[in-house]
Amino acid sequence: MPKTADLFVRHEYDTLVKQLQEWDVAYHTLNSPLVDDATYDRARRRAEELEKEYPELAIGRNSAAQTVGAAPSREFKTFPHSVPMISISDVFSEQDIKDWLDRVKAGDIFVEPKIDGLSYAARYENGTLVRALTRGDGVTGEDITENIKTIADIPHNIPVHGVIEIRGEVYLTRADFFALNEEAATAGNKPFANPRNAAAGSLRQLDPSVTARRRLRAFAYTWGEVSDRDWKTQSEFIDRIEKWGFKTTGRWCKLAHGLDEIQAHYNHITDIRSDIPFDIDGLVCKVNDVAVQEKLGSTANSPRWKVAYKFPAQQAVTRLNDITIQVGRTGVLTPVAELEPINIGGVLVSRATLHNADEIERKGFRKGDKVLVQRAGDVIPQVVESLGHAPDSHPYHFPTQCPVCGTDVVQDSNKVARRCINTLSCPAMIVGELEHFVSRKGFDIGGLGAKHIEKFVEIGWLKSPADIWNLIPKYGTQLRQMEGFGEKSVINLDSAIKSRKKIDLHRLLFAIGIPEIGDATAKVLAREFGSIENIRAATLEQLIAIDGIGEVMAKEIIAFFADHNTSRILDELLSHLVITNPQSVIRNPQSEFSGKKIVLTGTLSKYTRDEARDILESLGAKVQGSVSAKTDMLIAGADAGGKLSEARKLGVAIWGEENFEKAIK
């Protein structure tokens, strides 16, 4: 009988799922990874372990084991994948590979490099390239057809009848990456962090002519939908697509017989990794026989017949020149290692986080140390350990006062972070809060970037969000004389600020930076309470009664609005705004969807997932991400999977698209 999760287990699981969702969006949609692969993998494995031990956790939540990628950007047209692009399970050791081989009981294993780029799916009909999509969330991808056509490695026509979808990876060589960043530096633009980010950002340009200038390359390695498959093995498929004009990683692939040959090839690729002209982060091991692949099938989120054998993080030795302190919008002091610049896996690393005071003390970091640095998961730099102190070095003493404003630093009980408590006038905190306030999910004020905010805070023009609406009326004349500003830029900024005088309630709630409240929870609060006044007056009992809001989050909300200074700043801000609340607008309160908890799954032929969600919410429904015993209805489109099975098991009402369309009409 399954064990019941206690409060601590639930809190750990909810925290992990929230982190994974944020990291997925940052990696797949924004092309800006927040953590390294190793950290992500640990969090995901832990969440999956908890789901196995306590199955109830995955009911009514976005299961960590079922999530692949992130929702596609709304800037692109989207299309459903004819065959879902599910992820590959990761393994990290020879024992892991042995265990996998014991499970699949297959003969030959096709081993190929795992490219660190952006996945694509190119659809050909009667030999002509008709559409190309990104992975997106694995079910729906972004339409990048015109951009894909600019890449010479992907043929526009192939000698094939019927339908075939070729899948692969778009990437940049390290040489082209360095050249691209040199061009960016010359033009005064921000450089890309690494080749993967550069490739992803280049492929997802709205203007294909920009993509065409970015030196993108592409490998092909598998297939999706195919109307007439006549190859019997993975290796035969690779030979076939090479003849059609696709580029593959064939020269670095191996057809291995058993564990020893797989491990030998892994060791060989590890040794020559720096000589391979593009970034890889492991090897993909596939059962070679396609019939066996089909027999083994897949779990909810990954095929059983292939695994990714990941590399350990790349490392290098350099000097720790200094330890500096960054102060974030919540006042937390984060120590940063200022390093002698070192090239690690094609990226010049000069800074890395040291996390907190305890980490510095535990690992004994000092200025002048020789240190081991790694790009964990080949993305985020980390200082692993000190390899020796300089003769005249001294232990590092963490500041007891904020390095920005001089206020005393405190450490809350049971927390490692140390923070500045000068929430009203610490310039670093004000800058961080204002950057969050104008960010994309907040007020989204174009033209008010980080450098401008820093400057305006420094000269005293901005002290709180309300000051943004006084910026042009009070300081417009001085602003026109400031370097980097002219009449046109001031007019544009004034227009951008005025256009945000009318704001949706959920955007306001996100922007003001309530602890624990992200975009999704802000929408829930807006829908449930209807107005900012109701939310400010909400009790603990009212908040906890809302599905998805626990006691910790509820207490944070109450404490935020109870703070005298917060209330004063919020009142000043509200005097400039007109607040709307589309989350609470119900087009037909008597509809059969009103008040119902509904889950969408599969692919609808006439609506995108977002369009269907908007329609349901306008009719008073509460659209959820996963099925639970409290779900009233599941609306299932084509290719519905695990959610449909769960709904049947729980006796939830199931509707098809035809029922849905009749009801909304």
Can you offer a commentary on this structure?
The chain is of the alpha+beta class. It is 36% helix and 22% strand. The protein contains 24 helices and 24 strands. The strands form seven sheets. Strands 2-11-10-3-9 form a five-stranded mixed sheet. Strands 14-13-12-15-16 form a five-stranded antiparallel sheet. Strand 15 and strand 16 (380-388) form a beta hairpin. It starts with 6 loop residues before the first helix and ends with a helix. 37% of the residues are buried. The model is unreliable at 68-74 (pLDDT under 50).
What's a concise summary of this model?
By secondary structure, the protein is of the alpha+beta class. It contains 24 helices and 24 strands.
Helix content: 25-40%
Unreliable parts: 68-74
Number of helices: 24
DSSP, total strands: 24
Compile the SSE list and pairings:
Layout: H1 7-29, H2 37-53, E1 78-80, E2 89-91, H3 94-104, E3 108-115, E4 118-125, E5 128-134, E6 140-142, H4 145-148, E7 163-171, H5 174-186, H6 195-203, H7 208-212, E8 217-226, H8 234-244, E9 254-257, H9 259-272, E10 280-287, H10 290-296, E11 306-310, E12 314-327, E13 333-344, E14 347-353, H11 357-363, E15 370-376, E16 380-388, E17 409-411, E18 418-420, H12 427-437, H13 450-458, H14 471-481, H15 487-498, E19 502-504, H16 505-511, H17 519-529, H18 532-536, H19 540-544, H20 551-562, H21 564-574, E20 578-580, E21 597-601, H22 609-618, E22 622-624, E23 633-636, H23 642-650, E24 653-656, H24 657-664
Parallel strand pairs: 2-11, 19-20, 21-22, 21-23, 23-24
Antiparallel strand pairs: 1-6, 3-9, 3-10, 4-5, 4-7, 7-8, 10-11, 12-13, 12-15, 13-14, 15-16, 17-18
Helix pairs in contact: 1-2, 12-13, 14-15, 16-17
